[in-house]
Design brief:
Strand order of the largest sheet: 1-2
Keywords: Cell membrane, Membrane, Transmembrane, Transmembrane helix
Number of strands: 2
Distance between the termini: 26 Å
Structural class: mainly alpha
GO molecular function, one term: transmembrane transporter activity
Number of domains: 1
Shape: globular
Largest sheet: 2 strands, antiparallel
Subcellular location: Cell membrane
Order of helices and strands: HHHHHEEHHHHHHH
CATH class: Mainly Alpha
Protein name: ABC transporter permease
Strand content: under 5%
CATH architecture: Orthogonal Bundle
Number of helices: 12
GO cellular component, one term: plasma membrane
CATH topology: ABC transporter involved in vitamin B12 uptake, BtuC
Length: 348
Amino acid sequence: MTAAPVEKADVPVPTGHDMPRAVTALVFVRDRGIFVLWGLIIVAFSFWCAPYFATLDNALLIANAAALTAIFAAGVGFGVMTGVLDLSLPGTAAFAACVAGWLITNGQPIWLALVAGLACGVLVGLVNGLIALRGFNPIIVTIGTLSALSGLAAVIAGGYTFPGLTGLTFMGTDRYLGVPAPVYIVGLLFLVGTVFLTRTRDGIRLMAVGGNAEAVRRSGIHSDRYKVLGFVISGLCAALGGLVTAAITTEATPEASPSIIFNALTAVALAGVALTGGRGSLPRVLVGALILATIANGLTIRGIQPYWATVTTGVLLLASLLLERVVQTSVSNRLMASANLSVHKKQV
């Protein structure tokens, strides 16, 4: 005697209504978690460092301290989002600053020195991009460029520095409406960069090339052109950072500080920018730089040695990488489970 067939309607099917919510929550943590983290750090230091931390003057100090890191982090971010990692930023900054310093010292107008410095960044980015297109590893290429540029900067400066660049204070130590000049520069840079990446055709294509250059190429878009553009923008940001550094210190030095690339990479990693390219957000990169400055500021107010700020940021960096991996894996698994559930529902 055969058993009666079971109607399809009698088969229990899991609803899975929580899947979209779970995925949405994970994506929020990935894309907006850094803003929450910065808010928590501010609240913690406001109590721990009261009454000196939560003041307008201290907020301006933090913003000014984060400015240089933010400029270089923008350069790293543009490169990474395009799918390349430009390690030549310290050398580009030193080279651009020394070129501008040499011109100013030899009686050339300030505007010409600044244009020449920025043009150096564009030229370096163009060279890096064209060499990388020949099939060379971009990391090796930019390390070689870093060494060459450091040497060229020393040659231009004769092994010394260009002191007394007081004509650059308008973009360094001067304040406008009580706000330091570098803060305005950073605000304009990130505003223009964000609009470019999110509202223009070239910016969107730039991100697409970072995500999957081959797919972009097959769609008829000249992907190599956008790879070079990523290098050029990165070099331009590095040159701007070098000029702002010279404006703050009123001297141009040929020394290519390795801390520049370390801090910039840390800010980019904290921002959750995918090092594989194709995904990222400049506002998050800016918050990453602000987090580094906030931690250093708070620890300084408490009288804690500066090296603990480096330890803290290193731990945050490792934690952010771990969180990125966990969130990405969880999102992928839940989306796959949701897709399988939908197929199961159709079959039942």
